[in-house]
Amino acid sequence: MTRRLAAFAAAVGLVAFACRPIPAPSDGVLSLSEVTLPSPGVVAGDTMRDSAGRAAPVRVTAYGTDGRLDTNSGVTPIFIVFDPGAHVTPDGYVVGDSVRDTPVRIIASVGQLQTSPANIYVTALPDSLASTTPTLTDTVNFATTDSTASANYSVDLTGTVLATGVIPTDSVQAVIVRYTILYAPPGPNGAVTGLLVDPSGRPSSVDTSDASGQVSRRIRVRTQAPVAADSFVVRMSAEYAGAPLRGSPRTFVIPTISH
Predict the structure, then answer these.
(1) What is the C-alpha separation between 60 and 150, in angstroms, rounded?
(2) What is the mean pLDDT of residues 164-177?
(3) Quick check: bond before 188 cis, omega within 30?
């Protein structure tokens, strides 16, 4: 066989091999979703809870060979925690064992498939929501001719999640804090006159406390807001196990006037 014929035969063989169907896995699962967490953190000595304050398991979704959700009742994921500080029960509930400065990693496994690790923070019990932002914040003298002007943003509406039962008082990471606009100045024809944004200016009404327990959102005034002086009223709130933290909710009033 000439070198050219040999190369052609090898190419044909590769094409034939590439066109062969991939055999289905014996358990019927082709891929897994990422691990879904009911919360970014768990309190040491407690079970991970969802946004309603109820104990909830971590989950993973298995997909069959046709790309649809796998309905094989025999598929049972195994959850594995790699680091000390938490453990997971056989039915998927994460229990916090001890407070950590760094997150624990958890994966799900089905057969020979594994997910990438998800991070879970193990924290002290949050009991308070504090803030250094005055209830009546500085007036927003917004610019009607420039929608990107820095004057169109309020001061940061900050909060700090605390565990006051810890000596010294400790900040708590991975707690979800919600912001709600209770009142906004009326706009022409029902136009939205302002919205909550994150520090980067993206619309967002929910924040998760960082390593310092800090959360922050701002009001961005839209340029179709009325010329007459008025105010935004914003509520900041946080709960644990279905009960509000001490100091929650907190209400901010942000006066506005155009220039």
Answers:
(1) 43
(2) 88
(3) no
Distance CA 154, CA 252 (A): 11
Do residues 34 and 117 lie in contact, with contact meaning Cβ atoms separated by under 8 Å?
Answer: no
Q: How far apart are CA 153 and CA 142, in angstroms?
A: 8
User: Model confidence over 85-105: pLDDT tens digits?
Assistant: 999 999 999 999 999 999 999
Q: Do residues 239 and 128 touch, judged by C-beta distance below 8 A?
A: no
Average pLDDT for the chain? 84
Fold that domain 23-123 belongs to in CATH: Immunoglobulin-like (2.60.40)
* Cα separation, 129 vs 239, whole angstroms: 9
Domain ranges of the chain: 23-123, 128-258
The Cα 173–Cα 213 span in angstroms is: 5
Average pLDDT of 28-49? Answer: 91
Instruction: Please return the burial class of 132, using the count of CB atoms within 10 Å of its CB with bins 0-12, 13-18 and 19+.
Output: exposed
pLDDT band per the 50, 70, 90 thresholds, residue 227: low
Residues 128-258, CATH architecture: Sandwich (2.60)
CA 149, distance to chain mean position in Å, is 29
Q: What is the pLDDT of residue 61?
A: 85
**Tokens at residue 68, please?**
């649809």
Q: Is the pLDDT of residue 167 over 90?
A: no
What are the φ/ψ torsions at residue 40 (nearest 5 degrees)? Answer: -75, -10
Q: H/E element holding 217?
A: strand 214-221
